[in-house]
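Exam revision sheet. Question 4 asks you to relate a sequence to its structure. Input first:
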Amino acid sequence: MATILEIKERLPKEFVNNLYEMFTPITVDNILKGIIEKRYTTLRVNTLKYNIQDLMKYFKEKNIKFERVLWYKDALIIKNANEKDIKKLDIYEKGYIYIQSLPSMVPPLILEPKEGEKVLDLTAAPGSKTTQLASLMNGKGYILANELDKMRYEKLKYNVEMQGANIVETINNRGEKIGEQYKEQFDKVLLDTPCSGEGRFTAYDVQSYKVWSIKKVKELSKLQKKLIKSAYTALKQGGILVYSTCTLNKEENEYILNWALENLELKMLEINLQLKEATKASNENLDTSINKAIKILPSKSTEGFFVAKLMKKEK
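Answer key, structure tokens:
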């Protein structure tokens, strides 16, 4: 296993420097340890087809060791099997479970979609959060799931069908244009935006950080502003927007929120989910309410993630 010093040498220099600007040296060391760790496989039960009690019974029969997730009753951490092993199981083939990282399960929980609501998942592929939203809504209501990339769109469609998420309509469109096409039509919007993926860096996969650059971060932040404006336009007054990324830098997280609060009629809301890996977002030299957003730091169980909850003000 790589040491912290070795991983510092491997990772892009600007990325490591950014970490030291954002966090204390002890926190940076913990983040780097999280990047070095090989993460557990985590999954959730698809409640449209199955339930957690039957799933736990099934795993016990198969001698698959697991741990419950304190903040999400339908999620499990698998201790003695990897993703490949899980994909060989009949319950995977039937769409009874969905392999998904724990932080990826957080945005839908924070959005709290209800039965009968109209929900937009603006950048939806491969469908992890889309199908989770459908489960949380007990298959009652309407979800519009959009994806621009054609291949990823096909993956989204496949996962939606496999999970039996019949309330989902999938479309292949530009996320920046959806707002104008569906003005103020949705009760809730999830924007899990394309990002530089710093929270998913792993020491044993060079591809996870190979293409990272400051230039790419800046390009993505321009797209993220367009997407959050589109999400805002599609949202009804008084509606809820959850903005999330799987990255750690301020450019794609805190600065996007600050821009949105200055340019759109949005208000930050508290996140009431207790996660031990989460810290408050930084509001240094920014709108003070930005510290209501959370940053989940990389660890053995979790990738890095950023999540914010906002409300569209009523006129």
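Marking note for examiners. The longest helix spans residues 214-234.
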